[in-house]
Design a protein that fits this description.
Helices cover 40% and strands 14% of the residues. It contains five helices and six strands. The radius of gyration is 15 Å and the shape is globular.
Length: 167
């Protein structure tokens, strides 16, 4: 993997999954002393300017993550050049990003869970972060579990590459 200095997390509306990933990744990067450009965005502008879903915030804050300063925005053309890695929550958002991305930046597009390592949750294997917006129960906790695992692995890869890279 090439040197990663910036990561954009993307879901559809940028109020549940991607701001959760931004908050988690920001905290984990800070704990490791990494200075990274971290942001989140949505493939649609429906929630533009709004705060993250209160259920995402409540679940994340219970685990010590801060959502301070995070507001919904839509992916813009400049994001494809600005970010080294653009991670989509699910296949539909990944497809939407591929359709909008200039060809030279498509290699930056991946699923958030492509960094999760073991993708099994309970008895089923998952490749996408499920959208908890319309669900009930522990959907927001599951999102956090999946995102934390992927963020931990991504941080490990970034720090391993920094050690291996010449100064």
């Amino acid at each position: 993997m090439k040197q990663i200095t910036s990561v954009l997390f993307v879901c559809m509306g940028n109020i549940c999954r991607s701001p959760t990933a931004e908050a988690v990744f920001r905290a984990k990067a800070e704990m490791r002393g990494l200075n990274l450009d971290i942001d989140s965005a949505g493939t649609i502008a429906y929630h533009q300017g709004k705060s993250p879903d209160p259920r995402s915030v409540a679940a994340g804050e219970k685990r010590g993550f801060s959502f301070e300063g995070i507001t919904a925005r839509q992916v813009v053309h400049d994001d494809f050049a600005r970010f080294d890695l653009i991670l989509a929550a699910d296949l539909q958002n990944l497809q939407d990003l591929r359709e909008r991305s200039p060809e030279e930046h498509r290699d930056k597009l991946k699923l958030i869970l492509s960094f999760s390592g073991d993708k099994s949750v309970g008895r089923s294997s998952v490749s996408e972060v499920p959208d908890p917006y319309y669900g009930s129960g522990n959907g927001f906790e599951l999102v956090l579990d999946l995102i934390e695992q992927s963020c931990d692995n991504l941080i490990e890869q970034i720090t391993s590459n920094k050690k291996a890279s010449p100064m």
